[in-house]
Design a protein that fits this description.
Layout: H1 3-11, E1 21-24, H2 31-40, E2 45-48, H3 52-59, H4 70-79, E3 83-86, E4 98-100, H5 115-124, E5 133-136, H6 144-154, E6 160-163, H7 173-179, E7 182-186, H8 189-199, E8 206-208, H9 211-241, H10 246-254, H11 274-284, H12 290-313, E9 320-324, H13 339-348, E10 353-357, H14 370-376, E11 379-382, E12 398-400, E13 410-411
Parallel strand pairs: 1-2, 1-4, 2-3, 4-5, 5-6, 7-8, 9-10, 9-11, 11-12, 12-13
Antiparallel strand pairs: 6-7
Length: 413
């Protein structure tokens, strides 16, 4: 054993070696459902995350954000001592699989940033042993899995590299991990076999493909959903321009017509994945992904269309506008990439005042109680169709409802 290895072993906490699996970024949105699923399967999980505050929250038996069905599993895992909490690479064991939930974000020019993955791996490498399974979990730019394997070999390291993409819906990861097939790939047959055995503990079915195919499978899934939302949003704008009721059109189209059963309704398509992953595909295709670019223009532009229509219809400079819902989707507390904030910013240059409400979001100090926003507003806009708004008393105030969600409100748009 060399001096560096001796130093690493001296720094490694005694309980690090007790973990059956380590999840790096384990206290995040991708990590927590995975951690609890493995703990429920009987594994001892090292929850490794640089956010010590979030780790403390988990250790206390609470969740840092909404994840339905997770609290009972967290309580059970804590009681059974199935969770080890760590905040540095040195606290990762050198046996057992290590799952990394760091993906490739996009920069200010909407180009993928592979360096985020490299920086994470570089920090982990001194604490990993050759032969250990290293699994990428979050969305990565096409070719990243093969690149990582080649990168490690250039450094003289011999780890088993796999990619097992996360595909669950925000807030419902626990439920969907139990129900959905897991795509698995590895850069060697040994890596693929070991990764499949690991995820077979928590998934009902394993689907194996090549690394590039697995990477495309994740990106295509998110881009397709984003394009579907763009199609319905474009139809909505066309119908509105013609003075037609889009909800009536959708009802007629979908009634006993199975081929349109899954066609989504209009709304603000946002969140941390759909737009970003569509951008990654566009970058990979050298900006020749016209369908993806069109989807981005439509979905991002819907908010600006609403504001422009309101400017023509109302004297916004004399009005207080209340925004209902700041999370990026219904019944969760995640505001990442929420179009509600784009709408707020666009309105602030026109309206007298813009107020915001959300029954779930606790991280935005500007959010007010619903009754206060309703009372003080001249016009309301439903930004996020939280279930609570379905029966809320909006005092007869005019409401903009792109979603077609409200049934007994004074909908004006």
């Amino acid at each position: 054993m060399n001096k560096q290895s001796t130093k690493v072993e001296a720094e490694r906490p005694a309980n690090a070696g007790l973990a059956d699996v380590t999840v790096v970024g384990g206290a995040g949105h991708v990590g927590i459902p995975l951690v609890l699923a493995f703990a429920e399967a009987g594994l001892t999980v090292n929850v490794n995350d640089i956010n010590r505050e979030t780790l403390a929250t988990l250790r206390s038996g609470k969740l840092p954000f909404i994840e339905y069905d997770a609290e009972p599993l967290l309580a059970k895992a804590l009681k059974a001592n199935k969770l080890i909490f760590s905040s540095t690479p040195a606290e990762i064991g050198n046996r057992g699989p290590v799952i990394v939930t760091v993906g490739t974000p996009v920069d200010e020019f909407f180009n993928p940033v592979r360096k985020s993955v490299q920086d994470c791996i570089d920090a982990l490498l001194p604490h990993l042993a050759d032969g250990q399974l290293l699994v990428l979990r979050s969305t990565v730019y096409p070719g990243t899995t093969a690149w990582l394997d080649s990168y490690l070999k250039r450094l003289g390291r011999n780890l088993k590299v796999a990619f097992c993409p996360e595909r669950v819906v925000q807030g419902y990861g626990i439920k969907e991990l139990r129900e959905m097939p897991q795509i698995v790939t590895g850069t060697t047959p040994e890596a693929e076999k070991e990764a499949a055995a690991l995820f077979r503990l928590i998934a009902p079915e394993i689907v194996t493909v090549s690394p590039i195919e697995a990477e495309f499978a994740k990106l295509f899934s998110n881009a397709y959903r984003y394009i579907e939302f763009a199609a319905t949003n474009q139809f909505y704008l066309i119908a509105k321009q013609a003075g037609a009721d889009y909800q009536a059109i959708m009802k007629a189209v979908k009634h006993n017509y199975p081929r349109m059963k899954t066609f989504p309704g209009p709304g603000f398509a946002a969140g941390p994945c759909l737009f970003k992953d569509t951008m990654q595909l566009a970058a990979f295709a050298r900006n020749q992904f016209g369908l993806g670019h069109a989807a981005m223009q439509i979905n991002e532009g819907l908010v600006l269309n609403v504001v422009e229509d309101l400017r023509r219809s109302y004297e916004l400079e004399k009005m207080t506008v209340g925004l209902l819902g700041m999370a990026f989707k219904a019944n969760i507390d995640d505001t990442r990439s929420s179009l509600s904030y784009k709408l707020k910013k666009a309105l602030m240059s026109s309206a007298r005042e813009v107020l915001t409400a959300d029954p779930f979001v606790t991280t935005d100090p500007a959010i007010l109680p619903l009754d206060v926003v309703v009372e003080r507003s001249d016009l309301l806009i439903l930004c996020t169709p939280h279930t609570a708004y379905k029966t809320a008393d909006l005092k007869g105030k005019p409401v903009v409802d792109v979603w077609g969600f409200l049934e007994n409100a004074n909908v004006v748009y």
